[in-house]
Design brief:
- The protein is 47% helix and 0% strand.
- The protein is an all-alpha fold.
- It is elongated, with a radius of gyration of 17 Å.
- The chain has 3 helices and no strands.
- The two termini are 34 Å apart.
- The chain has one domain.
């Protein structure tokens, strides 16, 4: 299921969607606000341009919205049904979960967004001299 060549491989390993070898983000996972979504300009392995057009990642906001809604619903159900918390406590849990998981959601939405438009090419790496 997580074989190289699948979209899920690129998303989970945070690799270039074209070659599945180059790193997508400049920094490993961090909570630092200015480093969370910093991308390489191009893939270090296959030279894919990550910013395909100006404002390309505005579309990732829609993906992020879907992730956030799913997270809110899941946290609310867990808090209200399973843990039997009050509405206020449930919403406090939602706010806490959204703040803690914000960096993950931002990174995940960007890698999912680019994977919607770029397909894997087995022999896409650039040969170095």
């Amino acid at each position: 299921m997580l074989k190289k060549g699948t979209k899920l491989y690129s998303i989970i390993n945070v690799k270039c969607p074209k070659c599945h070898e180059g790193e997508f983000f400049k920094h490993k996972f961090t909570f630092h606000p200015t480093k969370v979504t910093k991308l390489h300009d191009n893939c270090p392995k296959c030279n894919l341009k990550y910013m395909m057009e100006p404002s390309f990642y505005y579309g990732a906001m829609y993906v992020n919205y879907g992730i956030i809604v799913a997270l809110f619903v899941a946290v609310f159900i867990i808090a209200k049904v399973i843990l039997n918390l009050t509405i206020i406590q449930s919403f406090a849990g939602i706010i806490a979960a959204s703040l803690i998981l914000a960096p993950i959601n931002l990174r995940l939405s960007r890698i999912i967004w680019i994977n919607l438009f770029v397909t894997y090419e087995k022999d896409s790496t650039v040969k170095k001299k």
